[in-house]
């Protein structure tokens, strides 16, 4: 007899019915909220790892001393630590004199000059288009996913807006 099984419609029908009753994987049923949560946790972990490396530089620890400290948690690298363990490690470094830099909520942050300049340039260039103000509003909603140009703080998206407006200008020229 051949190793290839003969086609059996009854077996195929049984296979299909068993698939219908199977439970969907957690990924499919969890939805977007679980991925957002995972992204936030991952971002928190990265920030903690960054704090650990900043602390190592601020508190002059040799590599051997640093390895001795993290050996307390039974790991060879801070990358192997969980979020609670990383938080504990940062607290330990704070007890040694490390100070986290607290950002002022009123501080506009880095790149604010570039953002202002891009917004001004975008408004100037959009003014040269036919029905420029209305078209700019639509482009901001479509490209930057914001309701107003002043709400967009993403330099990359602002540059993209400027590029599209210039492309539209070149198409409008007779």
Task: Label this structure with key terms.
174 residues; mainly alpha; 8 helices; 0% strand
Question: What's the SSE blueprint?
Answer:
Blueprint: H1 9-21, H2 26-30, H3 32-58, H4 63-71, H5 83-95, H6 112-127, H7 132-144, H8 155-172
Helix pairs in contact: 3-5, 6-7, 6-8, 7-8
Please describe what this structure looks like.
The protein is mainly alpha-helical. Among the domains are: 32-95, no CATH class; 112-162, no CATH class. The chain contains eight helices and no strands. The model is unreliable at 1-9 and 11-29 (pLDDT under 50).
Give the structure's gist in a few sentences.
The protein has helices at 9-21, 26-30, 32-58, 63-71, 83-95, 112-127, 132-144, 155-172.
Percent of sequence in beta strands: under 5%
**DSSP strand tally:** 0
- Classify the helix fraction into a percent range: 55-70%
CA distance, first residue to last residue:
77 Å
The description of the largest β-sheet is: none
Please identify the oligomeric state: single chain
Look at the structure and give the mean pLDDT: 79
Using the alpha-carbon principal axes, give the shape.
Answer: elongated
Overall structural class, as computed from helix and strand content, comes to mainly alpha
Cα Rg: 28 Å
Task: Give the helix tally.
Answer: 8
| SSE arrangement, N to C | HHHHHHHH
Which residue ranges are poorly predicted, with pLDDT under 50 across at least 5 consecutive positions?
1-9, 11-29
